[in-house]
Amino acid sequence: MYSKTLQRRWAKLICRSLSSLEGQKLPTNSTSVDGIAPPPRIRRGPTDILQALAATVGVDPTASHYKYHDDPFLIPQSNYRKRAYALSAEAGRKAAAWIRDEHSSLFTTRQWDPPMKMTTPYFNADPRIDAFAPKPIYNDESKSANSWEVRSLLVQS
Predict the structure, then answer these.
(1) CA-to-CA distance for 56 and 9, rounded, in angstroms?
(2) Residues whose CB is less than 8 angstroms from the CB of residue 89 and which lie 6 or more positions away in sequence, other chains included
(3) What pLDDT, on a 0 to 100 scale, did the predictor assign at position 115?
(4) Stated pTM of the model
(5) Where are the beta strands (DSSP E) in the chain?
(6) Quick check: 136 and 112 in contact, CB under 8 A?
(7) What is the CB-side half-sphere exposure of residue 5 using CA atoms within 13 A?
(8) What gap in Å lies between CA 32 and CA 40, rounded to an integer?
């Protein structure tokens, strides 16, 4: 607990001292007519500013864990309820994976599989059925399918 506080304080101190030292540096070869010269460029890494911002913000001890973000009313209060929440979330993930693997015909794309591990077989969810294909020319003699024919085709496939 105290180690994080100490780290934050050291980070604040270092940021303040570096910024004050950088502010005191003056360019040596200033060739300005007005006597105003921009300070030299401060070299920063890609995450230096984020680290400085993180040093100013602490962790809220009263906030709940980020996995309970859905509804504040449903946040578990006891350890038993937290464990039950975690187990039910894992059971939901496993149920979704089972439906994905066992009933892959319900899905048209397989973007959930990693490229090297294709667990679900490829299945076109919208196969071409000639009885349902539209006729190129509609006239009075064109035959329409009745509901029993459609039902029998759906039961067969």
Answers:
(1) 9
(2) 67
(3) 59
(4) 0.35
(5) none
(6) no
(7) 4
(8) 14
